[in-house]
Every structure is written in structure tokens, then in C-alpha cells.
Amino acid sequence: MLFVFRCAFDNQAKTPLRMSPPNLKKPYVYIRFKPFIDLFHLMKRTIVIGAMASLVTWCACQKANDQTPATPGKPSTPSTPVTPPSGVKHKRIYLKQGGDKGFYSNGKDFSYEAGDTLVLKENDWSYCSFENFYGTKSDPLVIVNEAAQIRLSAGFAFSSCKYIKLTGSGTSDKYGFLISDAVKGGVGVDIHGHSSNIEVERIDITRKTYGYWVKQEGSCVDSLQYPNFTISDIHIHDGRIHNVTQEGMYLGSTDPNGTRAVNCSGSVIYPRPLRLGNITVNNMIIDSTNRSGIQLSGADQGTNEIYSNTVSNSGFEYNTAQGNGISLGGYTHANVHDNSINHSFALGILVLGAGKIDIENNTVDNSGNLNGKVTPGMASIMVDTRRTDPVVKSTLIIKNNKLGSNTDKNVRFYETFATYNTDNQICNSGTLVIPGDIKYTTCN
Predict the structure, then answer these.
(1) Which of 49, 359, 407, 437 could form a disulfide with 368 if both were Cys (CB 3.0 to 4.6 A apart)?
(2) Per-residue pLDDT tens digits for 214-251
(3) pLDDT one-digit tens code per residue, 170-216
């Protein structure tokens, strides 16, 4: 009896999916009463054919193709990360472009394990989009360039991904990924949905609408509404953003109280967007943005830190409400320190947050002065309060900042809502304008 087996490969898994006989009407059984010699020759032919079929099957099953992207499909529920057994060597998986020079895959349809490395090698891409890809805390999933700096026109997107490291460290280039669009559209790196624990480094972004989005706006989906999830543990560092037509970094929704209408199958609701926590931005170079350089809003969880960044030439939209160097929006508590901010159409640093906010050791110059246009009333640091529900009081620590030229005062406080604590500390920050009922101490 001779069965000819067929080996079919899943283009992601590199492992046989099935082994099945062909559609034969009946098993191949050839027995006839003939002289012994005829039967002998028949047996020889059968053995040879069987051996050849086995060899072909073995070769086919050993074939190892590069990984290819899964076909885009309807978003699904997050997959469970697969942790490799102890001692198993992590794989390098080369991503393949589709016909549009892009890559999309849902982690449920892609064969990988936590700790694997996904590699981009072709020089030019349109987009690279990941949904439901998970690493683990000890074995993050790494995405890296190889052989040269990789160029993308649309950029990277991560939807409901966790424990990911996107790094341009695959070559000696300072920035291993360059994201640039001829029509200046879209977002360079977009992190949204149920995403957390993502690190991004050594990415150069230019000629986009936004450099980074890390946010989830109001949604019809309950699990994407506050307080049902927090986008947390996002670390962006050692990159560059220049010549973008809106914010350099748009981190968190600027409508944390949910005042914007969302139409859900004919019903209008006002969902509160997801909040942020444990957001870190450091060693970034941000130059020539039409709106603010770095904007962090709704970051009311964990420890948020913005430090050692260089932000210059913010506000080419020439809008006094949008051209700040660094902005902290509603509910945000953060430590903003050791940054250099120069030439902003509006304020050097704007603080509208809540909770404990530290503004220390920053160098701020030429606030209200951009490209020869001077805007009156722009302080180096301006602080105000916004409505929080429930009420969260603010404590401001502003000290040891080097504050240069501005078109107002070095530090100005407003009090839209009387929600300041009494333990504020303001020192070594030059000229101040602070309402009399706001309590604070100096460093002396």
C-alpha cells in the first residue's frame, strides 16, 4: 500500500499544518497473479517510488522560508503572549512587505514568541502596523532595523500591544529609522488602544503632522473608556522630531473630562478617554513644530518624567494657545527637569495639571519670540488650574530654573479653580506674579 503525503506550511509558523493523502479513489494496492518475476519487478518499482515520495516529503517539510506578514483582518481580542521554554533561543524574524510596501499583522495570526526580534531590512517602507503583539517583562518583543537606516513614509502603529521595544540600534546610524512623508501627513509613531510597556528609541521623524501620539480618545467601546484601562509605562528617548505641522509629541487626550461628543450607532455619548501613567520622555531633540513641542495630558497615574530634552522653535502656527515649548494638561502630575527650551511663540512651560508637579533645573529662553514675531504676555513658566473630578489639589515645586528672555514675567500663576495646596515651593526663578491667596515658601 503506497500513500503519497503532502506537506503544507503555514507561512508564519514554518511548521507543518497537516499531512494528508491525496484524493485517491482507493488505496494503491497492486496485487496480480503473474509469474514471480513480474511480481519482483513490481515490488522494486513500488519501493523506489515510495522512497522518492518520502524524500520529497522530507525536503518540503524542512524548507524554511522567511516570515511573511499576515493578511490584514478585523481587529480581534488581544492574544496571550507565548513564553518560550527555558533555554530556547530567541528567533530573528524578517518582516516582509505587502504590495503597498507596508506590513500589518494581528498577533493572533502571527507565529512568534516573547523575546523574539522582528527585523526590517528593506530600505523603503510605507507603514508597519502591529495589533495584539505581546512580549513579557523579562522577554520584550524587539523590533529593529538591519543593514541600513530604514525609511518609512507613514510610520509605526501599535494597537493593544504590550512589552515592545522599537529600536533603531540595528546599525551604527544615530537614528536607525527615518519616518518622513512628502505630503507632511499622519503620525510618526502611534500608540493606542490597550497598549502599555512600550519603549521607543533612536527614531528620526520629520515632515509629519505629529511626531508621536500616545493616547486613546473617547470611544464607544467600554474597555477603551476611563477608568477601565490606563496606557502606562511608555518610554520614548534618544530620538529626534523636526518640521512637523502640529505637536511634536501629543501624549494623552486634551479632553480628560469627556466633553467631546462621540456618535455610537446613532446614540451620542460623552465618554472620558483613557488616562496615562508612568510616561517618560528624555534625550529627545524637538525642533520646528507648528504647535507645542511636548504635550502631556491626562497623566494622573504613577511617575511621569520629562527630562534632558532640547525643544526649540515651537509654534509656527502662530497661535498663542498652541505654541508652547512643554505643556502639562489637565490631571497631569510630572517631574519636568533639566530641559532646554528656546524660542516659543507662546509660553516656555505651561502647567495646567494637578497633584505634585516639579519644574526644576530647566533653561528657558526667548518665550514669546519666534522667527522674528513677538507675542506679548508670554511668561517663561505659567501655571493655572483646571477642573478635576473628583477634585485633585496641586502642589508646585518650581526652583533652580534658568529663565531668560520673555514677554511677561519669569513665573506667572493664575487661579481659575482654587485648588492649590499650601505647601508650594518657588525659588531661584526670577520675577514672579502670584495671587495673594496662593501659599508658597522660598528656598531661603
Answers:
(1) 407
(2) 999 999 999 999 999 999 999 999 999 999 999 999 99
(3) 999 999 999 999 999 999 999 999 999 999 999 999 999 999 999 99
pTM: 0.82
Where do we find the cell 505641522? 245
Write out the three cell numbers for 347. Answer: 509660553
The residues spanned by each domain of the chain are 6-62, 67-75+89-208, 216-223+233-444
